Amino acid sequence: MRNEIIIEDVKHVVADKLRNEATGHDWWHTLRVYNTSMDIAEAEGKGDRLIIGLAALLHDVADHKFGYTDDDREAIITDILSPFELSDSVIEQVIYIVNNLSFKQGKNKHVLETIEGRIVQDADRLDAIGAIGIARAFAYGGHKDRPLYDPEHSGDPDNDTIGHFHEKLLLLKDGMHTEAGKEKALSRHERMEQFLKDFHSEWEGK
Q1: Which residue spans within 5-136 are E strands per DSSP?
Q2: Where are the alpha helices (DSSP H) in the chain?
Q3: Angle CA 138–141–147, to nearest 5
Q4: Is residue 134 part of a domain?
Q5: Hey, is 129 helix, strand or coil?
Q6: What kind and span of H or E run contains 53?
Q7: How far apart are CA 195 and CA 10, in angstroms?
Q8: Are 88 and 154 contained in the same domain?
């Protein structure tokens, strides 16, 4: 019961922090990652549910995409969790997960060592693909003032949103750690492939 109260309190804190976020890394993204993490943990029958839940809820708080460093995030997350009198081990594990979760344009080569981290990373990556992933990609592209597609610079994620599919989204299926994550990723990956086929067909006026 105590863990459930902690999770609910942290949900309120995070929802307040991400309320006006408009890049696709908002509270609803966080809640989906939390729910998917819990679903994967249940399917796998593994992991500490409190650590998984807290890491999922805090994974986009003070994220590097918004200019924060790992040290910034450690301080902010510690400040959020300190009132709940959690053990140092739990807080350290949550910080370890959130500081090593991100794709970081394919530059993050760190392999998460804990099952809790792998579950949350799978859930976060799942929300980046499929129908919702497509919507989030274009929301983020709009935030960055990127065009939908620039055929003269095709494949460059810094120039258009379609490039982001090739730089990141189409690679995520093969990066899943858990069996449940791999299964969920298959259909979402297929939706993206079909979307890209349709997009390019319509781009050519067909």
Answers
A1: none
A2: 2-17, 27-44, 49-58, 70-81, 88-99, 115-126, 130-143, 161-167, 179-203
A3: 95
A4: yes
A5: coil
A6: helix 49-58
A7: 36
A8: no
**Residue the block writes with tokens 């810094």:** 158
d(CA 23, CA 99): 20
CA separation (Å) from 189 to 10, 20, 129, 171?
A: 31, 29, 6, 9
Q: Establish if 190 belongs to a structural domain.
A: yes
Task: Tell me the one-letter amino acid at 65.
Answer: K
Give Cβ neighbours of residue 87 (< 8 Å, ≥ 6 apart).
Answer: none
- Tokens read off for 112: 């998460």
The CATH number of whichever domain residue 92 belongs to comes to 1.10.472.50
Q: In the prediction, which pLDDT does 64 show?
A: 76
First-residue to last-residue Cα distance in the chain: 57
Residue with structure tokens 């029958």? Answer: 45
Q: What is the pLDDT of residues 138-197, one digit of tens each?
A: 998 988 889 999 888 766 666 899 998 988 899 999 999 999 999 999 999 999 999 999
Q: Is 150 buried (19+), middle (13-18) or exposed (0-12) by CB count in 10 A? A: middle
pLDDT of residue 156: 64
Say if residue 7's pLDDT is above 70.
Answer: yes
What number of residues does the chain have? 206
